[in-house]
Amino acid sequence: MATGANITADDVAAEAGVSRWTVTRAFRKDASISAKSRAKVMQAAERLGYVPDLRAASLASDRSNLVALLVDDFANPHKLVMMERLTRVMRRKGWDTLLVNTLDKADTGPALLNASQRRVDAVILIGLQFDDDVLAAAQHARRFSKLIVFARSSQKPDTISIAVDDVQAMRDIAAYVDAQGYRRPFFVAGPRTSSAHLLRKETFIDYWQQTHGLRPDCVNVAAYDPALSGAVVETALKDRARADLPDVLVCENDALAIGAIDTLRHRLGLRVPGDIAVTGFDDIPQADSLNYQLTTYRQPLDEMADYLVEVLDSREDRDMNRLFRGAIVRRDSA
Amino acid sequence: MATGANITADDVAAEAGVSRWTVTRAFRKDASISAKSRAKVMQAAERLGYVPDLRAASLASDRSNLVALLVDDFANPHKLVMMERLTRVMRRKGWDTLLVNTLDKADTGPALLNASQRRVDAVILIGLQFDDDVLAAAQHARRFSKLIVFARSSQKPDTISIAVDDVQAMRDIAAYVDAQGYRRPFFVAGPRTSSAHLLRKETFIDYWQQTHGLRPDCVNVAAYDPALSGAVVETALKDRARADLPDVLVCENDALAIGAIDTLRHRLGLRVPGDIAVTGFDDIPQADSLNYQLTTYRQPLDEMADYLVEVLDSREDRDMNRLFRGAIVRRDSA
DNA sequence: AATCCATTTGCACGCGCGTGCAAAATTTGC
DNA sequence: GCAAATTTTGCACGCGCGTGCAAATGGATT
Prior knowledge:
2 copies of one chain form a homodimer. Chain A is α/β, with parallel strands linked by helices.
C-alpha cells in the first residue's frame, strides 16, 4: 500500500550518490544546485517513492505553510464560494489549508487552540460569530502570528481585515435603490452579533434618513440562513395591508434575500420584482439563477484572495488592513 | 502577540516541578497519572501559555490525526453540507481536516502528493473526478494508509467506500415515480466520468425497461452545476411538442434537479409539478425551500460520518466498504 | 598555466515530543 | 506493620529535515 517504509532524504541521497543536503536543495524551487545534481536526485527520489516530510520541515524551520480556516456559518452558500476561491489561490501559492468547523459560539476558543497545536502560520476567520470579546479571550494561547478576518471588516487590534468597503458598497446600493424610484425600503439584517452587519444596516439607514428624512423599517435574522430569513420576513409582513408593504427589501446578503424572495412569492403571494423588489449582497451562484435574478453586490473575491496571500507572505506586522471596492450586479429583482 | 517564545513541555515541567514526561501525560486523556500531578501541570501550562506541538508529536509517533479532504466539485451545494458534517464529526473525535481543492482533473495527483507531504493518516475523496485510472496513477507516492471514497461507491481495490446503496435508492425512486403514475420519465444524469452516476442511471433505466418495456430518454450534464443542467435540459426539450414532453424528470442529484426546475418554469413556461414533475437526490437545504419543495432522497449522512470515524480509528485494512440505506423525502415536486 | 570569482556541496546541531521499560512511590491485603 | 500488588514517574533515543557557514569545485580571465 504505502510505498515501502519511510523513505527519508538520507535514503535518496545514498541512492543518488550525493549528500542529504543536496537532496533537500533539489526539492526547493530557489536553491542553488546544479541541473545535473537535481536530475540525479529527482530520479533517485522517483525510484524510491520519496516524499518530503513537511512535518519535520516545519519543525526545523518554524514555518508550516499551513493556514487554518475557521468557519462556522455553513448555512450560507456564499461560504462555499469563499472556500473555493481561498483554497484555490492559496494552494497555487504553496499554502495548505486546515479547515476548522467552529461548532458553536463557545467553540471559538477551542478551535483557535486546535489551530495553534498544528502551529499554523496564520488563522483566517470567515465566519460571523467572532465577536471581539470571544477573540480577545482566545488570544491567550495564541501561537500564530497572523489573525486575518476575511470578507468582514474588523477594528480589532492585532487583527488584519481584508474586506469590501461596506459603507461605500451600501451607499452604492442605497443610491441605486433610490434612483430606481423605490420609496418604502425595508432592511433585512443578519445576526446582531456580527459587526459587519451593523455597518451595512446603519449605512443604509443613515443614507435614507438623510435623503428622505425617514427611518426605514428593519428586521434582524438570527443567522444567514434562507429559511430563517423567510420566516422572519413573513412574520414581519403578513399582517400588513397592501398599501403598507415596502416596495423593496434591501437584504444584508444574498442568503437572506433568497429566503425573502421565496416567502414573498410563495407565502404572501407577491410578485418579485413586480410587487416588491429585492436586493442582496455577495452575488452567490444562485443569485444568477433563472429563478432569482437577484440584483446584488459583488465583492472582488479574487483580488481579495490575492491580497490575502500577499499578507501571508509578508513579514510586516501592522497596517495591513485593506478595504476593496466591489460593484453592483444589476439583474431583474430590483 | 504570540505568547512569549516557544514554550515547550520542558519549560512546563520545570515550572511545575515534575519531569517532562509527566507533562506529556497530563495532556493525554488516557494516561496513567495522578490527579494532583495533572493539576499541577495544567496550572503551570496555563501560566506559561503552553500549547503542545502536534507536529513534533506526529513526527515522533507516526500518527498525525490529520485527514485530507479532497474536493473538486464546489459548484454542487451538497458539498457544503458534506463538509460541515464531516468536519463536525471528525473534530469531535479528535481528527483535523486538511482541505485540498483539487483544481482540475489533472490535479488529482498533485493534490494527493500534497496530502502525502503532510503525512495525513487518511485521504477522503468527496469529489467526482476521481476516475479509477487517475487514482491508480496517483497511488505511486502514496504515504497514507487509507483512501476513503465518501458518498460514492467505488469498486477500486485499496479503497474504502462509504456510500449509500445507489441501486437500492434508485429502485426506490423509480418505484415511487412509477406508483405516482408517471409514464414518460426523462433521466438527467451527471458527468460521464463519475462511476456512481452510471449506477443510478442504469438502475433507473433497467427498472423502467423491465417494468414498462421501454427505455426512458436520457441526457448527460458535464458537471453537477444547476446552471449547466438547466441549459442542457432546455436544449433537450425546447423543440418538443407538448405531447412529447416527459411527465417527470428524474435527476441524478438535487443540483441538477434545481437547475432543471428553473429552466422548466422560466424558459419553457411549464409548471412544476403541474406540467412536469421532478425528483432529485441528496436533499440539499434548497430542496426544502418554498420555491422548490423537491422530492428527493436523503442519505444518512450522520451515520455515514460516524462510520467514517470508525474506519479512521480502526487498524483493519480490508473489507471496510459499506453501503447505507437512505430514504425518499417526499415533497411537492413529484 | 596560474589565478580569481561564482557556483555548488557538505555538515553539526537542534526543532519538540513518544515509545517502552525499569525504578520509585503508593496502596492494598492480612 | 510488612510484603505484595498496583499505580505513578523518569529516561535514552530517535522521528526527518533546515540553518548558516566553510570547503570544494568549475569556469573564465590574463
